[in-house]
Amino acid sequence: MSEAAPPARPNLAADPGSEPASERIAPDQPDFIAAQFAFAAHLRDPDHCPPPPGIETRRLTIYRELIFNNVAALLEAGFPVLRQVLGPARWQALIRDFLIEHRAQTPLFTELPQELLDYLGTTRAARHPEDPPFLLELAHYEWVELALGISDAAVDPATYDADGDLLAGVPLVSPLTWNLAYRFPVHRIGPDHQPSTPEPEPTRLLVYRDRHDQVGFLVINSITQRLIERLQQDPPVSGQAALLAIAAELGHADAGPIIAAGSALLADLHRRDIILGTRRRPPSDPASGPHPCGSGSARQSAAAATQSDSSGSKR
To answer: Tell me, what CATH number does 237's domain have?
Structure first.
């Protein structure tokens, strides 16, 4: 997968847990620390790591079930489609493998889904080739909804004009919009649709959170994705300048149809809160005039180049 949005956190699985915790303790550790490590190792992998001596079996069973069921329930809430695709047995096996093979680096429940994503992209990818080929991308797609749902990214309303001219002005893309591309059609994967090979063209998605805190997605084509990329570049450019650059990339000598179709697209993105408005210029910045554009034919190809395919609410 690729993204032109906030990058995923770097891998935190520095210790894949290739050996029981009790065997990684320095020999000079006090006995109570050795007992804690052995207890934790047993809770992670009860089939292969014996518990410390002297703990009642009934108590051990309670702790084992609490650890496993709580982690499974939290992750199931974050990855409902992944859980449905795998089914109960493979899902529980995945959770057990996660507990055994991954060492989370955060105590926060809200960051545990990111830890599962780290695990799927590193340790598990190397050790479990039998997994569905779309597993990591589907998990990432579901994680994006979680990340956007709790993100505190915001823009000061004083820095943009919500009613600004999206062609003459400089459109401001919401920081709660992620521009993504996947090899698999992750938005369509489910128990009844599990592709075994990637599609010829990437699946391009804008996943965003609107002013009502609802997370949605928009299936886009390469031209719309390129427009978002240009609007997010530094230094920022006007909507018209971005569309003119795209027309040049496409080899259209007559940019008029691209500007017309792009203007409608910008308005639609604004309506969805993907574009917040236009940036307000600091007082010291000189105003830049509109870029010239032509007019003419090729409207059909221009409309196809900037058309969004479909949209919906995230699952």
So the answer is: 3.90.930.50
